[in-house]
Amino acid sequence: ETGVTQSPTHLIKTRGQQVTLRCSSQSGHNTVSWYQQALGQGPQFIFQYYREEENGRGNFPPRFSGLQFPNYSSELNVNALELDDSALYLCASSPKTGNYGYTFGSGTRLTVV
Amino acid sequence: EDQVTQSPEALRLQEGESSSLNCSYTVSGLRGLFWYRQDPGKGPEFLFTLYSAGEEKEKERLKATLTKKESFLHITAPKPEDSATYLCAVQAADNYGQNFVFGPGTRLSVLP
């Protein structure tokens, strides 16, 4: 059984640039959520995808967008990067929506300079 | 607004010294309360889900309990490998399947 894999592991971008982060969900999982975790804080919900449709969104601006593909992998896109976007971005998958123990990936560490 | 606070912010224990971590929550209706462990540079690792007041779950040296306003994670005779950040999260009943609200975590250090 494969877990959740995220790429890249680390990334440095310049303010104003755009970035795409990728996530392969665990086998058999059709729900993917993205979280932002600033240093020393708990993760904050960005959005969730279920069967290729956005299924909920947290308090993040529209420059944070996403996609889910037919194989249930997912992308997180961030436009017009700001310094405060520097964080660990976590992807989590589950077999369906609901109160299940989601499986998290190891995250992508994004640094905006 | 759903909120989760955790205390203490950091805890340092000697190996074998038992203690408890606290998670206090405010939620319109609780669908589930979750405990995760997070090692530095890694994603959270699922530990427990609790659904109703009075429920308890155990795993090795860890035991989680739930009341209507808070949850405790009891660590019995901890070992250095238990050192990590422990995160508590809630899922609200009116937010079905959509997201967790996490607390800031408790950083646990267990010294040999």
Topology diagram in text:
The complex is a heterodimer of chains A (113) and B (112).
Chain A lengths: L4 E3 L2 E4 L5 E6 L6 E7 L6 E7 L2 E5 L6 E5 L5 E5 L8 E8 L8 E2 L3 E5 L1
Chain B lengths: L2 E5 L2 E5 L4 E8 L3 E9 L6 E6 L5 E4 L2 E5 L3 E6 L8 E9 L8 E2 L3 E6 L1
Parallel strand pairs in B: 2-11
Antiparallel strand pairs in B: 1-3, 3-8, 4-5, 4-9, 6-7, 7-8, 9-10, 9-11
Structure description:
The complex is a heterodimer of chains A (113) and B (112). By secondary structure, chain A is an all-beta fold. In chain A, strands 2, 4, 5, 6, 9, 10 and 11 form a seven-stranded mixed sheet that branches. A four-stranded antiparallel sheet of chain A has the order 1-3-8-7, with no helix packed on it. The mean pLDDT of chain A is 92. Chain B is mostly beta strands. Chain B is 0% helix and 58% strand. The N and C termini of chain B lie far apart (41 Å). The mean pLDDT of chain B is 93. The chains are: A mainly beta (113), B mainly beta (112).
Can you give the helix content of chain A as a percent range? under 10%
Mean pLDDT of chain A: 92
Let me know the number of strands of chain A.
11
Strand content of chain A: over 45%
Q: State the order of secondary-structure elements of chain B, H for helix, E for strand.
A: EEEEEEEEEEE
Oligomer: heterodimer
Described by strand count, sense and barrel closure, the largest sheet of chain B is: 6 strands, mixed
Number of helices of chain A: 0
Instruction: Identify the overall geometry of chain A.
Output: globular
Largest interchain contact: A-B, 30 and 27 residues
| Overall SS class of chain B | mainly beta
Query: What is the arithmetic mean of pLDDT of chain B?
Result: 93
Task: Give the terminus-to-terminus CA distance of chain B.
Answer: 41 Å
Low-confidence stretches of chain B: none
- Spans of chain A of at least 5 consecutive residues whose pLDDT stays below 50 are none
Q: Strand content of the residues of chain B, in percent?
A: over 45%
Count up the helices of chain B.
Answer: 0
Total strand segments of chain B:
11
Considering DSSP H and I runs of 4 or more, what fraction of the residues of chain B is helical? Answer: under 10%
Distance between the termini of chain A: 37 Å
Reported for the largest beta sheet of chain A, the result is: 7 strands, mixed
